[in-house]
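Example 3.2
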Amino acid sequence: MRELAPGVFVETGYRLINAGAILADDGWVLVDAPPYPRDVQHWRRCLEEIAPLPVLALILTDSQRDRLLGACWLGARTIVAHEETLQHMTNLPQTFLDSASDALASNTLEREQFAATRLLMPNVSFTERMQLRFSGRHISLLAMTGPTAGSVWVHLPEQRVLFAGPSICVDEHPYIASCHTKDWLENLTELRRPRFAADIIVPGRGPVVDKSATEPISNYLRVARRRVFSLYRAGRPRADTAALVPELLEMFPYDATDSENVQRRIKSGLDRIYEEFKTFDRVNDLSTR
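Structure, written as tokens:
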């Protein structure tokens, strides 16, 4: 565990996500929770060793599967998320937890632990901005579209710390789960501006970084958008985005043994960018009628 600023902590050693914690006078405000029951229980014990206080709130930085599973082990009084995340969770199929268990569990013990997992819905949501005020802490929540439409940044401007969730990734191909890459690019540009008070940035997973770490993601999104736009304007079908995968594959390091999964992630993202351009054309055509 690393203390980023007085009373602001992060653990980057858990599987799949980073876990953040902000200590107020009367309890903890957590940013995401590890999906594996064993990891999230360990995280809770670590926090209790620092301050044996209740979890006042858990903030979900987006709606990706790995960020939705750990809440039930924390006893948080409040779960906060973007309205888009709430809607996504409301529409999850009944098989969601079984599918997540099958995907994540690597042995019988983990399957048994996941069997006790419950999906807890956010009881507070917002659409643009929210201020959380606890004794000794003011925490800004910003709706900043990224990999999903419900991506949230957790900002502590006085400490110049930002929990950016999966809007920022380090040395890996971005996961694109929504048709809003233009907005994502604009948000990353805004973050790089000097007026945005953030010297310490916690990505969705991986090491803590500074603003310079956003440029490789922006570059990837720019290249992907240019290539897909050329293909789309030429009237080629969405399936042809597969031809763009090799170029984008080389833009970030990847494990050769996981190459097929990485290529599927890239292709899925390219397909969403294709649909983004298609939707833009459709909306603008309708607006001129």
